[in-house]
Amino acid sequence: MDRTEIVLRKAGLELVLAPGIGGAITGFRQDGFVLMRETAPDAGDVRLFSCYPLVPFSNRIAGGRFRFAGRSYSLWRDPLTGGRHAIHGEGWRNAWDVAEAGEGSARLTLDHGGTEPESWPFPFRAEQHFALTGNGLAVTLVLTNTGASAAPAGIGLHPYFPRHDKVTLGFRAEAVWRNGADHLPSEAIAVPREWDFSSPRLLAEPGLDNCFAGWSGTAEIAWPTAGRRFRIDADRCFGHAVVYTPPGREYFAFEPVSHMNDAINRMELPDHGLVILEPGDSLRGTARFLVAASSAA
Hints:
Layout: E1 6-10, E2 13-18, E3 24-30, E4 33-34, E5 51-54, E6 60-61, E7 65-68, E8 71-74, E9 86-87, E10 97-101, E11 105-112, E12 124-133, E13 136-145, E14 151-153, E15 156-162, E16 168-171, E17 175-179, E18 185-189, E19 201-202, E20 209-213, E21 218-223, E22 228-234, E23 240-244, E24 251-257, E25 275-277, E26 282-293
Antiparallel strand pairs: 1-2, 2-3, 3-4, 5-15, 6-9, 7-8, 10-11, 11-12, 12-13, 13-26, 14-25, 15-24, 16-19, 16-21, 17-18, 17-20, 20-23, 21-22, 22-26, 23-24
């Protein structure tokens, strides 16, 4: 496992990347203040990092099985799901190559051949572009179909944020998916009051691990007592957001994603969000994490 890190710095912002461990972010800070969950120095598990890419799909695929274009496929079922489902794609489980690295920007690439047993069966090239700006971080994901036939495709980011200093979350969505006992979506409902973050508020219990549909593309995270605030501004391709607020943990996740959970098995739904890429075509989206002083500071 290659633990080599890339450190980007600009205007008081510091971003640390681990290309060899899932192409992940291991730290994002502003003048020393932790903006994404800190990664333990000895952590080798990408799930404990600050943020990792979701390509070529987000969240779970039921039973690690799906059909596409008349063929059936089986994927590796992750122990994270109790060995029941595939989860989060290929990007977080593989080392990425460093294509470019400068003082305030970097580009990582991942080439997937689609030939490994129980891996994603369609070849692709993924890219992550990281750029520090004067007021935050822009992360651009690009997924290109490098195969000879059409292929399903999705992208997303899985950032974790510290849950302290009376942190609040605010975002708007049209609906949310309830989960069944297997953590797969069971029904889409109007956002209930206890899950409604249209006005920023404290995270509540019990915890969420749900996909919101019709996300507006913006969200706000604020640490009022610390006088810090994030605005997440995502391209329209990120029409869904997964919110994960595990009870009793010192972190939570707000994940901009392009499609609903288990979308590959639900393509009859009009708003599943998955994209079909023809050979040579690409899916591209940028999520911006903009830093500002909190109005409560």
